[in-house]
Design brief:
Elements lengths: L3 H28 L8 E5 L6 H11 L6 E5 L9 H4 L4 E5 L1 H4 L5 H16 L6 E5 L2 H6 L8 E5 L5 H7 L8 E4 L2 H14 L9 E3 L19 E7 L7 H13 L4 E7 L13 E3 L6 H8 L4 E4 L8 H8 L3 E5 L14 E4 L4 H16 L2 H18 L2 H11 L4
Parallel strand pairs: 1-2, 1-4, 2-3, 4-5, 5-6, 6-7, 8-9, 8-11, 9-10, 11-12, 12-13
């Protein structure tokens, strides 16, 4: 049974229930309007340290001279990336107190009305951009039809898809980072009975990262440096990475592991003396200095779009060992850019990851070749100019 009509019916029922709160919010916005006009309204969950947040900041930076207002709708766990969003023509507004509270959920309804009135009352042509933000999806039905509504969705996880599915008709353009993600989401459309007329709204735009103009000379390290930088959580399956660490230690491989990010509490106590912990990295300069010292980046994710940390590592000539999920195989070719872990059973993932690390650690010539390949790939594919033009076209800006 195709359940999309039921999903739509549920959305209608929710809109009826919350209508008085939305109307109240619109009234508040009329009494307390914005003091300026804006070309683009953007909505993001937070500015905490993370790959998605770096991409969101890059989208903001692509707005070269436009007036932009950015709403953050969830409490940020840290402020490491806030400064990336702060720009001369950008106003940052944190509304998480009202939109991210489980105890004040009625305030979320009111803020849908406030933001809708702000956007609908703009006299200049304006556009809305949603960076995978739950609040922004639920705002969409309250916006004028003539306002351009766009989004960036990082992964095809169906769990998050249930947030987006009811609002597909309101999104004019949906950006994804990989062809595989587009295919997976189209498959979800068919399973649910979402009309095919919405398929054409999907498009692919690759992320951008800074790319050094030249790759510094990399002398072979007698002890190879293996990295994981980022966050934890069930998606990243760091317990598989930790198992690879243990196998490398047991085999006395000439390797050392370097970790950085927000997952220190997930590192087992017995492993902490065996790894180098670099903490939370908040600046590109610091992150790239760290990448430039590494030989191999290892990721054991359950699903991904195309991780920013892989792009950064490739820019610095680091070899990639990663699970062959979603967008990763579109950019990583065995022996050219690194090695893919194709196993799907967890024990086999650990074994295959260990074999790849062992092989790379023993082959300086292969690591040197991969370093050159990855830097050139980054030069050819991760251009800021291409990224900026793609997002300006998306938002129909000159």
């Amino acid at each position: 049974m195709k359940i999309y009509p039921l999903i739509t019916l549920k959305r209608y029922a929710e809109q009826v229930i919350m209508f008085p709160f939305v109307l109240l919010g619109k009234g508040i916005a009329v009494l307390r309007p914005l003091q300026e006009e804006y070309d683009v309204f953007m909505f993001f969950p937070s500015y905490a340290l993370g790959g998605a947040e770096k991409v969101h900041a890059a989208v903001v930076a692509a707005m070269h001279s436009e007036k932009v207002i950015v709403f953050f709708t969830k409490r940020s766990q840290n402020d490491k990336l806030r400064h990336f969003f702060a720009r001369p023509d950008v106003k940052l507004v944190e509304i998480d107190r009202y939109t991210g509270s489980k105890w004040m959920y009625w305030a979320n309804f009111i803020y849908r009305g406030i933001c809708a009135q702000y956007i609908n009352s703009q006299r200049r042509k304006t556009a809305v951009f949603n960076g995978q933000c739950n609040f922004a999806y639920k705002l969409l039905p309250h916006l004028r039809k003539d306002i351009l509504k766009t989004e960036l969705i990082h992964v095809s996880e169906k769990k998050f898809g249930w947030v987006t599915f009811p609002y597909i008709p309101f999104i004019n353009k949906r950006v994804m980072v990989a062809d595989s993600i587009i295919r997976q989401i189209m498959q979800q459309y068919r399973e649910l009975g979402i009309p095919e007329k919405y398929d054409a709204r999907a498009r692919k735009i690759l992320y951008t990262v800074p790319v050094p103009e030249t790759l510094p000379a990399r002398l072979p390290h007698p002890v190879k440096k293996i990295a994981y930088f980022g966050r934890g959580g069930y998606q990243k399956r760091l317990y598989l990475l930790f198992a690879i660490v243990r196998k490398c230690q047991a085999a006395a491989l000439p390797v050392e592991f370097h970790f950085a990010g927000t997952f220190e509490d997930e590192v087992p106590e017995d492993l902490k003396p065996l790894v180098h912990w670099h903490g939370r990295i908040g600046s590109d300069e610091e992150m790239y200095r760290l990448h430039a010292q590494m030989d191999i980046l290892v990721m054991t994710s359950l699903f991904e779009g195309f991780p920013v940390v892989i792009m950064e590592a490739m820019s610095c000539g680091v070899a990639i060992v990663a699970t062959a999920v979603d967008g990763i195989p579109e950019h990583i070719v065995d022996d050219r850019n690194g090695m893919l872990i194709r196993a799907t059973e967890e024990a086999a993932i650990v074994e295959e990851g260990f074999r790849h690390v062992s092989r790379l650690a023993a082959d300086d010539a292969l690591l040197a070749s991969i370093a050159q390949n990855n830097h050139q790939y980054a030069v050819d594919h991760f251009s800021k100019a291409v990224f900026d033009r793609a997002y300006r076209n998306l938002l129909e800006l000159p």
